Structures are given as C-alpha cells and as structure tokens.
Amino acid sequence: MKNFHLPSILKTLGLIAFAIVLVHSDSTAANNKGSRFGGVQVGTITYSYRSMPDQSLDAVLNYVVQSGLSSVELMGDVAERFAGIPASKDPVAIRQWRTSVSMDKFKAIKKLFKAKGIKINILKLGDKSWSDEEIDYAFNACKTVGALGISMEISEEAAKRMEPFAEKHKLYVIFHNHGQPGDPNFSFDKVLSLGSMLRLNFDAGHYFGATGLNPCGLIERLHERIVSIHIKDKTGPKAANPNKNQSFGKGGTHVVEMLQLIQKNKWPITCDIELEYTVPAQSDAVKEVVKCVAYCKAALVKE
Question: Distance (Å, rounded) from C-alpha 131 to C-alpha 178?
C-alpha cells in the first residue's frame, strides 16, 4: 500500500475546496448577462427601490439582480448601514464614526456586488457641509467600493468646497441636478468651470420638467463632462399636469432619443434608471424597474 503524506493530502483538498468556491463565485457573476444594450450601459440608482420593504444591503443587491442590471449608483445610506453607522441622530456621534470606521465593510460591499456581476459606478455619499475628515472618509469609501466618484446635489458652493478633495483623491465629484436649470441664473458651465475633477450626474427628467427643453442639446454640448444620466420620463412645465413623473413612454423627456444619441456617438455615459413615478397597485419597484429596463433595451437593440 502506497504511503500517503497526510498534510499534503489536506493541502490538496484545501486547494480543491478553494477552487470550487472561486468557480461558484465566477459562475454567479457569469450568470449576470449584463445590461449593456447596443453599446450603452444601462443601470439604476438604488434609490429606485426605496419603497421595497427590506432596505438592507443584501436585499438591495438582490433587487438589482432581479432587475437584470449590471451597474448601479449606490445610495450612501444603504452602504453606511451595512458598515455599521450608529442609529443615533447625534451629529457628533455620526462624525466620530465616519472619521474612525474601518474600510473593511466597504471592501466587503465591493466583493458582494462583484460576485453578482454588478459594478458600483457611483457612490452617493458626502455633503459640502461635512468636515474635512468626513469628506476624506466619503472619498475613501468611494475608492474602496471601486466607484468613479461620489455624487451630491449641484451648486457652486459645493463645487468650490469639494474640488480640492476630488483633486487630492483623484476621484470625481459627480453633481446631480433637480429643478435648478429652470432658474435663469443657473449654469452647468459655471459649476463645471470650477474644477477639472467635477462631473455631472445629469438628471434629464428634472431638466425637462423644469425647462421643457430637449435634454439631448445639453448632452451633446457637455457629454465629455457627463458621467451618468438619470433616466426618467416627466411632463414639461407647460403641460396640463406640469413637471410630473410618468411611466416610461408617457412623458415628454425624449428618453429614446437620448439613449440613441449616446449609442450613435459611443459616448461612455451610463444611463441610470431612476424610478420616481408612482408604483401601481399589485406591482412593486423591482417589477417596475424591469419594465424600465425593457423600455431602454427596446430603444437600443433591434430584435
């Protein structure tokens, strides 16, 4: 009988078990066929799932998987709860946690999403009112989950505050708009002129709802500074029911035209579905995001 060396056998069995884990992880990611349609990456902001009963990170990740998507803008509150942020509303306690917390949980977030074949493109975290140390924390968390940058509400004040940190961390500050473009004194160009690391998370729906203008004009002009677009459908400011969210295809936001413009020019702009219309009875946010995904895919892929 051959004399086997037990430690060697155990080592071999350990390597086989590790390989099985890797294969399982890779196959899980491979099962996600992706949501890049006709060359355009379609994703979602996880805010779309805010009406779902479970708001844990694992649940939100599962909603994204069920929606058939392979990229997200991840809401900071979901990430921070997973990382163990105190339930306290005391700003001092929150600040102390943010400036001392380990990045281990954020590393885990990246691994969990990657295992499902999902890329975190943007982390919605940070605010111009935060301390320097908290802003550094937001960028460190962003870097750890593998995102391109952090997103927040657009303003000149925020641009001036955040630009030095963006330069320091070599990550983008990606500004999101609501109805600001409806103010004649507002200018995307002025904000963007305040720093080379400033980008747009252009909300086309809010833009159209506030101005009535076709978003394609702004996208063509500023496409080099746009990282992502929030895709939604709304009525315009002069409609009978003005500036109201609608199911895709029922508003006037030029959703199909936007998607096809990006496709035609092969611009590296992610189109993130933001579900803001009222979820119908007998449906839920996941089912509605699936409908939105199908609408976008139909605009980009000829069957």
Answer: 25
Find the largest Cα–Cα distance for the chain.
Answer: 89
The residue among 29 and 32 whose pLDDT is bigger is: 32
User: Which has the closest alpha carbon to 120: 138, 105, 106, 136?
Assistant: 106
Q: Which of 244, 294, 242, 257 has the alpha carbon at shortest distance from 273?
A: 294
- Could you say which of 3.40.250.10, 3.40.30.10, 3.20.20.150, 3.40.50.300 is the CATH number of the domain covering 35-300? 3.20.20.150
Helix (H, G, I), strand (E, B) or coil at 233: strand
Alpha-carbon gap, residue 257 to 144, rounded angstroms: 35
The residue-averaged pLDDT of 260-289 equals: 98
Distance CA 203, CA 208 (A): 9
75 is written with which tokens?
């809401």
Question: 129 pLDDT exceeds 90?
Answer: yes
Element (H, E) at 73: strand 71-75
This prediction has a pTM of 0.89
**Signed CA dihedral, 211, 214, 220, 224: sign only:** positive
Q: CA 258: distance to chain centroid?
A: 18
The 8-class DSSP code of residue 245 comes to: E
The DSSP H or E segment spanning 200 is strand 198-203
Secondary structure (DSSP) of 17-41:
HHHHHHHHHHHHHHH----EETTEE
Q: Give 230's strand partners.
A: 203, 272
Residue-wise burial string across 101-132, b where 16 or more C-beta atoms lie within 10 A, e elsewhere: bebebbeebbebbbebbbbbbbbbbbeeebee
Question: What is d(CA 124, CA 203) in angstroms, rounded to the nearest whole number?
Answer: 14
